[in-house]
Amino acid sequence: SSSSDSDSGESSTSTQTNSKNKQQQTQINELTLTLQLKKDQLHQLQHDKQTNSSKLSIVQSQLYNVNREYTQMLQDHECKMKVLQDVYNKKWCGDYVNMRSNSVTRAEERLNVWKCRIEELEADVNGSRKKN
């Protein structure tokens, strides 16, 4: 009886050990799968980072180009505005000079009219004096 007791004890221990080994193997398999999943996720994140870095570089380049174009357009616009301002100022000066010279001419014309009248009046006065 004692030998069969020890046999059943060994088989019971061996069954427990097998059961523990299976549990551990299952845990190892799960951990291996989890580790592989995490490695895949890391690889995907590294790939995404690289892709995003490339996209960022492209966007920064585009932004730089747009900013350069905007600055150029702004400078062109400022130059055009300055030219227009100069043209306007010259035109206004020209118009003002013309207006002034026209008014001087009109004043001279009126002055000549008055000179003629004065001469006529003086001639009348002188003529009437002579008669007397």
Structure in words:
It is built from 1 helix and no strands. The chain has one helix spanning 2-131. It is rod-shaped and about 180 Å long.
The helix content, as a percent range, equals: over 70%
> From the helix content, strand content and strand pairing, which structural class follows?
mainly alpha
Q: Return Rg in Å.
A: 55 Å
Low-confidence stretches: none
Biggest β-sheet: count, sense, barrel? none
Instruction: Provide the β-strand percentage band.
Output: under 5%
The number of E-state strands comes to 0
Number of helices: 1
CA(first)-CA(last) distance: 189 Å
Order of helices and strands: H
- Average residue pLDDT: 85
Shape assignment: rod-shaped
Question: What can be said about this structure in brief?
Answer:
The protein contains one helix and no strands.
Describe the secondary structure blueprint for this structure.
Blueprint: H1 2-131
Based on the model shown, name its key terms.
mainly alpha, 132 residues, 1 helix
